[in-house]
From TrEMBL:
Coiled-coil region(s): none
Species of the source: Cardamine amara subsp. amara
Name used for this protein in its record: F-box protein
Residue ranges annotated for the F-box domain, each copy included: 1-48
Pfam families (alphabetical): F-box, FBA_1
Length: 332
């Protein structure tokens, strides 16, 4: 039986399993449950994870409002489903005790900014009078304990300049505007991503002419300072896809060494330039220099207005303590 394997061999076998399988392993038998929580196994698991990261990395992707874990290999381009991340409520409630949540509504009829602390279990009103606007479709990027958005100057309406805006959770305030390495127009696709958890990357694709896609990576990023390296990747997408990525989508990942990017979006529909495509497929587009291009079908999308959204995922074997289930009380 597998449970009778020598400890060293069992360690080696179990350390190669994806993180989504560990829960099943622990419920298989007491021996494996104890083994998978040992320090020796943890160190071996981390070592194996680092080996895999040299060739591939893991990403958490929301598809049709469901969170899934994928393995991405940009060396031999592929993206494979590892499993569904279903049991997240206990993890979120435990980890966020040391964190804060920013909530804001900035509309002509209402302007409210509040921050919630899990440590104090309370909301606090922030007094903010924004002269900028963050589109409802703009996804924030968390990096180094701060959150960054693509924002636009309010004074000039839809023709206002774009920039990067940071909310510092330590000072609990929005910092000064940070410049982009380009200046987009209203319906251009602009998105942020993280690189190695240390720098930010920005994707820009024009809506006109060649649908040229460009990606930059920062050389320095702080709440009040940003500097950019030269363009990492520049691709004429018109001859590859015939359509631009949705301005409300464009979630992406980039490998700076291989100069390859993976962009999540819907399937194109023959050159449609609006965000109301009739496509029912979620697609991963893998793009590189010298015309390199590949698509991976991520399956059917049952929600037309739900666009794929992804972020980097770092596997961990740390145990999250969850509250014991409440006993059922009978009433007379």
């Amino acid at each position: 039986m597998l449970s009778d394997l020598p400890k060293e061999m069992a360690d080696e076998v179990l350390s190669r399993l994806p993180v989504t399988s560990l829960r099943g392993v622990r419920s298989t038998c007491k021996k494996w449950n104890t083994l998978s929580k040992s320090r020796t196994f943890t160190m071996l698991y981390i070592r194996e994870a680092k080996k895999k990261q040299r060739k591939e990395f893991q990403v958490a992707v929301i598809l049709d409002c469901r969170l899934s874990l994928f393995s991405v290999n940009l060396l031999n381009p592929s993206i494979d489903l590892i499993g569904m991340l279903l049991d997240t409520r206990g993890i979120i409630s435990t980890l966020l005790r040391r964190h804060k949540v920013l909530r804001f509504v900035d509309e002509p009829s209402i302007c409210e900014f509040e921050i919630y602390s899990f440590r104090s279990n309370s909301w606090k009103v922030l007094h903010v009078n924004p002269d900028w606007d963050i589109g409802f479709f703009r996804h924030g990027l968390s990096l180094g304990g701060n959150t960054y958005w693509i924002a636009q100057d309010k004074k000039h309406g839809t023709h206002g300049p774009f920039f990067v805006l940071c909310f510092d959770f330590t000072t609990e305030k929005f910092e000064q505007r940070l410049p982009l390495p380009f200046q987009p127009f209203g319906l251009d696709t602009v998105a942020l991503s993280s690189v190695r958890g240390k720098q930010i990357a920005v994707l820009w694709q024009k809506r006109s002419c060649s649908y040229t896609l460009k990606i930059w990576i920062s050389s320095r990023i702080e709440p009040n300072v940003v500097s950019w390296n030269k363009v990492l990747l520049m691709v004429d997408m018109k001859r590859l896809t015939g359509f631009p990525f949705l301005f409300s989508a464009g979630s992406f990942f980039v490998d700076e060494k291989k100069k390859v990017a993976l962009v999540l979006d819907k399937e194109g529909d023959g050159g449609c330039t609006s965000d109301f495509r009739t496509s029912t497929r979620n697609i991963a587009y893998i793009i590189g220099n010298n015309g390199y291009f590949k698509t991976v079908d991520l399956g059917e999308s049952r929600k037309i207005t739900c666009w794929p959204l992804g972020c980097s995922y770092v596997p961990s074997s740390v145990q999250i303590k969850q509250a014991a289930p409440r006993a059922n009380h009978k009433t007379a």
